[in-house]
Amino acid sequence: MSQDSLTAKLAKANGNVEKLCEFLSARREWVSPPEASASYSELNAAASAVGAQLRRLMEQCGAEPVEPPNPPAASVGAGTHDSARLQRFAVFLQDLATWFAAQTDAPTDTEGVEALQTMDAHIVCLLDLFDPESKPPAGPEQSTDPSPGDPPTGPSDPSVSGGPNASVDLEGVPKQLVLDDTDEKPLVQEFRGISELTPLCEKLADDYLDAWKIELSYYNRKKFLERLLRWISSAPEGQVLVIKMKTAEEPYTPYPSYVSRDVLEGREPPQDP
Q: CA 211, 214, 219: angle at the middle one, nearest 5?
């Protein structure tokens, strides 16, 4: 696929993901009926799959994540989701993840790279919306400005800390946190059928935040650890989660990236046959 064709498809997919993010963000106070719980779970899983593929391509072309919109749309107030609509959204994201998985080449032009970065930011917003812990507590009613219409239901073309390469900044503060989930040092465990971070992983995360003098409330720490679990679980095969800081000055913002395990261990990455 030519770069021009790939960039055009990425721009179209980015527009659809942005509309979906705006639509669901505007309805972030809505509840899901019991029959929609499966569709909501599929939405979450599909968004995670799209995010993993986006980060793979971003790593391939050397692009860094950008700050997601917060929030991307004004709330329309309370309401109830339609199960069939949520299912259509899930199918859209599943098709998009499948299309991305088939892409071996990353964009090299500025427009294509920016489309990847923007799409990744909106996927982060979607995952936050799907996370029940990210919903704000009950409070005063928010704005009821008109929200955008329904987004497209499918793409037009479905087309630890201190690892071996960890660098330091700010007089010895670890610049990145390498989280490699291995059999020898597991970072994720199962408890009563539920995946959770191991105490080791939580300690590595807490130590990293402490080194940067980042103090999180109980709620925000829990949210950050849940993101770590999601990021570790979404790591592409052969890739390791690496947490970095977006800025070199306060307020520091941790963000995820992925690095080849071969590169971290100082080995030459495998070559295509």
A: 130
For every residue of 172-192, DSSP letters joined together read TEESEEEE---SSS-SEEEET
pLDDT of residue 197 exceeding 90, the answer is yes
Do the beta carbons of residue 190 and residue 229 sit within 8 Å? no
Cα–Cα dist 114/264, whole Å: 26
Q: What is the pLDDT of residues 226-243, one digit of tens each?
A: 888 888 887 777 788 888
Degrees to nearest 5, angle at CA 22 with 16 and 28: 135
pTM of the full predicted structure?
Answer: 0.52
Q: Is the pLDDT of residue 225 over 60?
A: yes
Residue 80 DSSP label: B
Tell me: the pLDDT tens digits for 213-223?
888 888 888 88
Check residue 150 and give left, alpha or beta (phi > 0: left; psi -120 to 50: alpha).
beta
User: What's the confidence (pLDDT) of residue 188?
Assistant: 92
Distance between CA atoms of residues 197 and 191, nearest Å: 10
Cα separation of 181 and 89, whole Å? Answer: 31
Q: What is the pLDDT of residues 118-142, one digit of tens each?
A: 999 899 888 888 764 433 333 333 3
**Residue 28 CB partners (closer than 8 Å, separation 6+):** 71, 75, 129, 135
* Cα distance between residue 108 and residue 130, in whole Å: 32
The token pair at 47 is 């968004």
The β-bridge partners of 256 are 243
Nearest alpha-carbon partner for 17 in 28, 25, 29? 25
User: What is the maximum alpha-carbon separation in the chain?
Assistant: 60
Rounded distance between C-alpha atoms, residue 12 and residue 66, angstroms: 19
Q: Give the number of residues written for the chain.
A: 273
d(Cα 85, Cα 36) in Å, to the nearest integer? Answer: 9
Amino acid in the structure at residue 115? A
